[in-house]
Amino acid sequence: PHCSDNEKLGAFLMFEDFAQDPSTPPLEMDMLAIDLVRPADSRLKIYFRARETSFASVRQMMTMGNRITNPSLEAGLRNLRKLWDGVLAQTGVPDDTPLPSANHRTGGILYNMEFRPGSTAPNVKVYIPARHYAPSDWHVVTALNEYMYGINEKSELPMRTYTETLRKVL
After folding, report:
1. Contact at 8 Å (CB) between 73 and 138?
2. What are the tens digits of pLDDT across the range 20-36?
3. How confident is the model at residue 162 (pLDDT cuts 50, 70, 90)?
4. DSSP summary character for residue 6
5. Mean predicted lDDT score pLDDT of the chain
6. What tens digit of pLDDT does each residue of 85-119 get?
7. Residues 141-150: contacts with CB within 8 Å, 24+ apart?
8. Contacts with 169 (C-beta within 8 Å, 6 or more apart), sequence order
9. Could you give the angle at which helices 157-169 and 137-152 cross, rounded to 10 degrees?
10. How far apart are CA 159 and CA 161, in angstroms?
């Protein structure tokens, strides 16, 4: 079976509807990628950038304007907000407050939408823009250490080793 049937393109049609919605901020398409495997097993990935940088805009993109709703996504967004707050020093900042301006070609937030044949919704991923918006590399390492230790409640040995190695390199 080919992937040209509309019923097998539900996730892509959802993205198309989201991208054309007047309430969706402008999306800058960066890249298209496909898996070079049997079409039935292949993923189509669209990478795009949005210049809006508030966590509210991240939530809008991750849920595709509330087109995707499920408990695991909500849990993931809560965890993402903890990581966002730590890495970008945004603790206590309201969701609708944008990050400081970064007038650069790679400024804004980069997203990846992954589509599989037959899926009804895309798998949405976000790249936290530490390069432009984090206070320092050391702040990022420290925030990642705190996040990983707090979220997993496991031994801090792997992150401590990473932190110590990075300290030596820097």
Report:
1. no
2. 999 999 999 999 999 99
3. low
4. G
5. 87
6. 999 999 999 999 999 877 788 889 999 999 988 88
7. 141/166, 143/83, 143/86, 143/87, 143/89, 144/83, 144/86, 144/87, 146/86, 147/82, 147/83, 147/86, 147/87, 150/82
8. none
9. 170
10. 5
In angstroms, the CA 119 to CA 114 distance is 10
Residues β-bridged to residue 115: 44
Cα(23)–Cα(43) distance, integer angstroms: 27
State both tokens at 94: 């309201």
Tokens of 63: 């849920």
Report d(CA 26, CA 24) in Å as an integer. 6
Fill in the amino acid letter for 33: A
From the list 127, 24, 8, 5, the residue with the least C-alpha distance to 16 is: 24
Which H or E run contains 125? strand 123-127
pLDDT at residue number 170: 65
